[in-house]
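User: I'm putting together a small comparison set for a docking exercise, and I want a reference complex before I start. The sequence is below, and the ligand is pyridoxal-5'-phosphate. Could you produce the 3D structure with the ligand included, as structure tokens?
Assistant: Of course. I'll restate your input first, then give the structure tokens for the complex.
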Amino acid sequence: MQEQINRLVKEWFDKQSYEFVPGKTKIPLSAPQYGAPEVCEALDSLLNIKVTMGEKVRRFEKMYAEYIGVEHAVMVNSGSSANLLALSVLTNPMLDGRIKQGGEIITPAVTWPTTIYPIANVGCVPVLVDIDLETLDMSAGETEKALSDKTRALMPVHLLGNPCDMKELGRIADGNNLFLIEDSCEAHGSEYWGKKTGSFGDFSTFSFYFAHHISTIEGGMILTSNERLAELARAMRTFGWIRDLRNRNEIAGRYDIDERFLFVTTGYNFRPTEIQGAFGIHQLGRLEEFISIRRKNADYWSKQLQDYGDIFIVHKEKPNTRHVWYGYPVTIRPNDKFTRRDLIQFLESRNIETRPVMAGNMAEQPSMEHVVHRKDSLPNAEFVMRNSLFLGNHHMIREEEREYMIRCIEEFLRFKKAV
Ligand SMILES: Cc1ncc(COP(=O)(O)O)c(C=O)c1O
């Protein structure tokens, strides 16, 4: 029966058709990227009533750790949980040399809110630093300037899949005895000097939310090559109990408590379901194909927009890196012909969806009134908050769609007499 179901599922997906009609078909910011393999694998878990975290999650963890090039991966239910878990481990009283309450953690001002909030959630102080305008990544120079005697960690973000300057940030972290946590939630498969981002820090975190390079619908991962950090992450992911620990038998021997309900640390419930593991093991095999499509699109857009370099800042891939273009950012240079709002309205009227670059400058978000933080001057983050937008970039955007998007931008520039 299951084979019959699988055949039908395959037939269902084979029958789905997609035709791009310029101006009519919406070009969304993200698009579903799963098919029969993911659905059949998920159905296998559902039909066989093996739905809570199990063998498929473990398989995906092992595959993902190998792909990034680290020793340990701990899957969780979101990228936000991954960040909170990583920081909770680094502040855990059981960890020698842990970060104590009030310790400062330097992170970029332009990012997603849940890079920053978890720092405050664990009793530390986020220090927001400016980005480089060309790369949109946390500036290593600004990071160095923001160091204080309270700094305990750096938490760079490979924004939109563009690898940060890991040589410089690594030098700053090593030279000042700081933990390094890479928020790689937008950077699956990006590379810095041939090494995958997510393999440089004490911890790195990934998101597998629907819009990301690969997706488990919701989901996240925390990676490390440090066995001690990994074991604490495994315990804290699930209530602080010992069931997922490698040395659980040895720990159990120390207490006269039912080992199934033995809690050695505080923790959360950040477990993913087996359905998410089922998606992950099939999605990973498609990641390189997805990256290659995103890179082709970005390469095309960057070449075309280069002709309008006096109107837009074209954000480029840096030498010796592989940018994986989570989205395609467009930054408008100040001019008297049009505003960002004009361009957004025009593109949306042509069925091209747009959004800000993540949350823009987080220092300007009202929520930050409730987060004790420190910030330096942030002219570039402020500039991006007002002048940048982000176009969708994913596997559904191919030659026809990407050409249409450029045609629309050119039509707009002519209409506004900007060219
Ligand atoms: C840089 C960054 N960090 C963290 C997250 C949080 O991931 P999630 O949405 O899976 O919670 C995101 C989400 O897009 C992100 O872009």
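Residues 76 and 271 are 5 Å apart (CA to CA). The pocket of pyridoxal-5'-phosphate is lined by residues 78-80, 83, 111-112, 114-115, 157, 183, 185-186, 207, 209, 220, 358 (CB under 6 Å).
User: Thanks, that's exactly what I needed.
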